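G., before I forget:
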Amino acid sequence: MKILVTGGAGFIGSNFVHLLLNEQPDLEVTVIDKLTYAGNKASLDGLPNNRFKFVQGDICDEKLIDQLVAESDVVVHFAAESHNDNSLREPWPFVETNVVGTYRILEAVRAHDKRLHHISTDEVFGDLELDDPAKFNDKTAYNPSSPYSATKAGSDLLVRAWVRSFGVKATISNCSNNYGPYQHIEKFIPRQITNILSGQKPKLYGSGQNIRDWIHVNDHNVAVLKVLESGRIGETYLIGANGEKSNKEVLETILELMGKPKDWFEAVNDRPGHDMRYAIDPSKIERELGWKPGYTDIEQGLKQTIDWYTNHKEWWQPLKDAVEAAYKKKGQ
Ligand code: NAD
Ligand code: TDX
């Protein structure tokens, strides 16, 4: 079985490739990744050469995608521009990669009759009020807020249309906020951990009351494997680990685990249009595919993640000054 993984040098994709090659001895994996600022080939170090190939390229490149899809049995599509704050600064790469790139993948899997799994986000559903008992499920209407989430919503709708109109064999999953090793330090949790490791105060947007539904990246990827093994074609599966926490709560836990006072942070400018709360109802994937998260204690997951960033300074330190300088310009 040959699997093509798009965006495999990014955070979730690289963790997925490690999981695949460690756990499934008969698989061959090809990664296609453009190596944007968010991709890092070092995240794929140590993989078995005889079963792993890396291609640097763009998912918008029609010819290249057609050829790579033709050579594969299954495509798992992670590649995306993924950071909300960047999408507010410069939306075009989001439209290009997330919408046009997904279109290219869809046309190639249609032409060669290949199985596709499309990775998406809970942000396509918009946000919930803090006191709303509701959670997102696969019947929740799409209502994205940012250019990032709008382009992810667009990509999901393209996949649905290609399933219905052309019989493409695709599934979709919408997951909540991931954390774990190899996450770019522009994102909330690694930004704060690496700030503390560099002697800088963590930065909290606005009031810090916004809630995210955290899941360890490994639990997300095990769920994706379940969908590939036994998901029903045309279905959407929501993935979440009942991990709702306010940003302030998460930050206080990180500070405590790293031996700093709970109030050792700076309140900085809020994100325009900042979504208030995300929450996933994971009962469909639990019931239909028998998936359950392994990390039920976020404190334990955060501790492991802090250890990873502490022990892999060479992976993130070269990026740190530029990431913080870009945030500083926006008062964040
Ligand atoms: P990431 O930014 O860490 O990685 C994205 C990867 O895609 C990078 O390696 C980048 O080089 C590559 N890429 C970007 N544009 C490309 C292009 N045109 N052609 C080829 N490669 C390209 O992102 P991530 O956090 O790992 O997210 C992966 C996927 O999971 C995305 O589709 C994202 O929407 C989705 N998702 C992320 C989260 C999360 O919490 N991070 C949650 C739910 C869903
Ligand atoms: O320095 C910060 N301070 C802060 O308070 C940063 C970078 C973020 N925040 C807040 C904003 C959010 O409420 O923390 C929360 C999480 O922020 P991000 O890590 O940027 O994630 P989010 O915008 O929630 O989106 C993430 O989850 C869904 C991923 O980046 C998306 O790719 C995924 O689709």
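Residues 2-179+215-239 form a domain with the Rossmann fold fold (CATH 3.40.50.720). The CA atoms of residues 172 and 236 lie 5 Å apart.

More on Monday.
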